[in-house]
Amino acid sequence: MPGDLTAMPAAADDGFDADGALDEGHWTARGPASLQAWARAGARFGALPTLSRGDHIDPALALPGMTARKSLQLHAFIDVASPAIAASRVSHVVDWCAGKGHLGRELARRTGLPLLSLELQPALCADARRLAGAAGVDATVVCGDALGDGAEVLMRTPGAATGFTVALHACGDLHGALIARFEGAALALAPCCYTRAVDSGRARLLSMRARDVAARVGLVIDDRDLRLIHEQVSETGTREIGDVRRRQAHRLGFDAWRRSLGAASYTPVPAIPLSATRLGFVDFGERLADAAGLPRPDSSFAEFEGEGWRRLDAVTRRDLVRSLFRAPLEAFLVTDRACALDERGYEVSVGTFCSRAVTPRNRLILARSRHQRS
Known about the structure:
By secondary structure, the chain is α/β, with parallel strands linked by helices. The protein folds into two domains: 3-47 and 233-323, no CATH class; 59-227 and 325-369, Rossmann fold (3-Layer(aba) Sandwich), CATH 3.40.50.150. It has 14 helices and nine strands. Helix 3 runs parallel beside helix 14. The protein is globular. It starts with a helix and ends in a 5-residue tail after the last strand.
């Protein structure tokens, strides 16, 4: 391993932030100058303005059937979208890939606008209609595929072209399809799951501007690069973060033991419950061997626990360098989506609607037709 990385503080030290992600500031402040420079450059490029008014919500606003964290995400999104709706002359709230319609229903209730929703699954469509009726919201639910005819039906439904469309964590092709077909008055979109928007293993760029830049500098973003964006545990509690790292160390210790017996490569093993890591290294190894159909470890196995932690430390140090590119990469992809809307004739702004502790996918695109004036 390069000396620059071995000189950094141990991964088992306090090199993780409150969100459970690598604390790049902590590590780079005590690391080599080259990493400090990269971290500063990445922070500047990946920084976006804050659109939210904070992450606190009244517990009474928690929605039934949703986790507290998901309710927090939804209300943070609504707190940013509501003023944007008020500043636009729109006739409807339009909820793209609505699920049970929590987001659109709450926005419609707050704004007094009728609701138009698109959802694929009939059972969720039925729930959306029932919940909207119970809330006294005037709702039309289109049951169809956002990647197929359902989108066309939605676009032809009265109110779609003059509505304010919302999409919270629309995955991959779903947010790509929305941008490509969007003809509404205004939009609030929080993209997600970039790994699901690929062509032949490469990121699908939606704007001519981003494609031109990528071609000019020879930028290729493959699916491994895209996975980097999602390699965070910000939605995991402190205890679970410890369990994840312990499982990684125990798996690496198990692999080291297998290699000592002559295995030439990493031994793939089935998943076992995360809670099994709390039983101790030896018990974990026995369960892992049983799940993989391998002989149980012998008496020498316990000696490999320390090796597992040493290997995890080495992996974590290398991952630190990759992590410095996470925020700039996501900022580039969000900017690509924003540019695609700009090219379609929309005024666009980009920022964050909540902190990373609430969700690491906290980037929000606000777009309004240039024909719209408040």
